[in-house]
Amino acid sequence: MNYQYASVQAKKEHYIPTLEINKKIQMKRNYSSLLAVSFLFFEVLAVSVVFFLLYDYRITQEFNRDITFWNIDSPRFSNYMVFFLISSVIYTILVYRYQLYRFRASSGLADELYKVIQAFSFAIVLTIGISFLLKYTDFSRLVVVSYWSLAICAACTIRGLKRMVYIQLAKRGALSKNVVIIGAGKFGKALMEELTNYSYLGYHIVGFVDDHERNDVHHNKYLGPISNLREVLKNSLVEEIIITIPSERDLVNRLITDLRKLDINIKIVPDLYNLVMSTVQIGNINSLPVVTLVKTPMRGLGLVTKRFIDILASALAIILVAPVFLMTAVAIKLDSKGGIIYKQQRIGKNGKPFYMYKFRSMVSNADSLLTQLESHNEADGIAFKMKDDPRVTTVGRFIRKYSIDELPQLFNVLIGNMSLVGPRPPLPNEVEHYGDWEWRRLEVLPGITGLWQVSGRSDLSFNQWMHLDIYYIENWSIAFDIKILLKTIPVVLKGEGAY
Fold first, then answer.
1. How do strand 177-182 and strand 203-209 relate by DSSP bridges?
2. CB-based contact 383:463 (threshold 8 Å)
3. How far is C-alpha 257 from the geometric centre of its chain's CA atoms?
4. CB 40 within 8 A of CB 107
5. What is the pLDDT of residues 461-491, one digit of tens each?
6. Which of 247-251, 481-485, 495-499 is predicted most confidently?
7. What are all long-range contacts of 190-198, with beta carbons under 8 Å and residues at least 24 apart?
8. Would you call 201 helix, strand, or coil by DSSP?
9. Which of 42-64 are b and which e, b meaning 16 or more Cβ less than 10 Å from the residue's Cβ?
10. 293: which strand partners?
11. Is 487:110 a contact under the CB 8 Å cutoff?
12. Which residues lie below 8 Å from residue 262, measured CB to CB, with a gap of 6+?
């Protein structure tokens, strides 16, 4: 497809009042910056109050004296002040490194809070090490541990409040970022859907320009052909342009050149087939640079660490939820005839079959009834999903909603057939219909939870499910697993998308 764009030299009538637009954009950014600085100030204030209250409390207990907040003559005040300053500096650096200083959200709240916990934990650990090197060791371990936990709670609370304020302002349009999307092909439509579904990102789609798609997409307004872009920028305050047709290099170069004077962010969605290319490693053969395609980063020491965490966490979880196991077993036995545990063959890593364990949530002859219900399948792919499946028992509906039926899979994790986090293990008849792309799900151990569960669970289409699993495989890390596990907790407690 050929796209056309009229340059400013060729279209003098499309002149844009550059200075006026830049001024309006800067005013909006200043407002966002002011709010960001305000909440950072409150965060610093809260953390400081926590630290010095803990210090004063410790000193009053040790020396039997009244609390005198911020008294520089108090015992060991200078030592504690050094600890506080070092940890604050390191935390500030990590806040900048993780881009946690912005007021506009660039990710979900769970991601932001995870980064806060990670940054503060690193700051405390590094500060302890530096303090030992500087021979500042006269600290109370109780104060340090309490500071670590309470300061994280204070910082997360402030950031939770900030997110509430941000969402309200974004809904009113006060802080939403006005964006125009160039191109309404596969990537353009996917981007529009993403920005519309995830309102916390704070994007307001002014519309899109495209030379071929001339109808509104997902309720997003068609603004005309790409040659009409300058007219759009003149009539609307646009802060960001996202180009989704990067293969049109000449067009992209002209756009970037002509819009350089405007203080508008220009982003390009790379057409790199990122769900096909896998992870890449840069290396060389003698003096020749080469790019090696790697199936998944889940290998080497990382894979060993993942397995160690699986064994430790599953064993601990089995002990902790033993009472739940007992109560669920009794409820299932009283509710309907049949066994307590349902054993089903699934396909694991590299196509190896194994038996997956679950609490029985259906009638005992559920498998034989499946053929009668195939016409009621509500999934758009080869998997079978039915919201009001008549085979599900009363207790089964409850334990499915809150994922209690999945708990016996902790034994699968302990054995080594599954992992805590990974793609869901498919049925043999589903794998028979897999193509090369879907088979990629079988390159790693299947998991109890995964991106699919924290992104909609059973409400996802088969295609979305596949994309999420492959994205996880190609972008895996221990930190990614921890994020998914943390996100799973609220999703399970709410019972969202499970049936």
1. parallel
2. no
3. 34
4. no
5. 677 788 888 888 888 888 889 988 988 888 7
6. 481-485
7. 191/242, 191/244, 191/269, 192/217, 192/218, 192/220, 193/218, 196/220, 198/108
8. helix
9. bbeebbeebbbebbbebbeeeee
10. 280
11. yes
12. 16, 18, 21, 22, 233
Q: Nearest Cα to 271, choosing from 242, 243, 247?
A: 247
CA–CA separation, 59 and 63 (whole Å) = 6
CA distance 64 to 60: 5
**Residue entry with tokens 């009053």:** 60
422 φ/ψ sector (left φ>0, alpha ψ -120 to 50, else beta): left
What is the helix, strand, coil percentage profile of the chain, to 5?
55, 10, 30
Q: 10 Å Cβ neighbour count for 413?
A: 25
202 CB-contact burial (10 Å; exposed 0-12 / middle 13-18 / buried 19+): buried
The residue with tokens 């053929």 is 371
CA separation for the pair 357, 250 (Å, rounded): 56
Q: Which of 123-132, 139-148, 158-167, 381-390 shows the lowest per-residue confidence on average (mean pLDDT)?
A: 381-390
Contact (CB, 8 A) for 383 and 433? no
Q: Say whether 216 sits in a helix, a strand or coil.
A: coil
Placement of tokens 């950072």 in the chain: 40
Alpha-carbon distance of 345 to 292, in angstroms, equals 35
- E strands within 360-488? 419-421, 447-449
- Please count the residues of the chain: 499
Report strand pairing: 341-347 vs 288-294: unpaired
In 3D space, the residue among 198, 22, 227, 11 whose CA is nearest the CA of residue 105 turns out to be 198
CA-closest candidate to residue 199, choices 293, 318, 104: 104
Closest CA to 489 of 197, 229, 114, 196: 114
Strand-by-strand arrangement of the 203-209 sheet: 203-209, 177-182, 240-243, 265-268
Rounded CA gap, 453 and 493, in Å?
Answer: 12
Q: Between 494 and 4, where is the model more confident?
A: 494
Token pair for 97: 């490194």
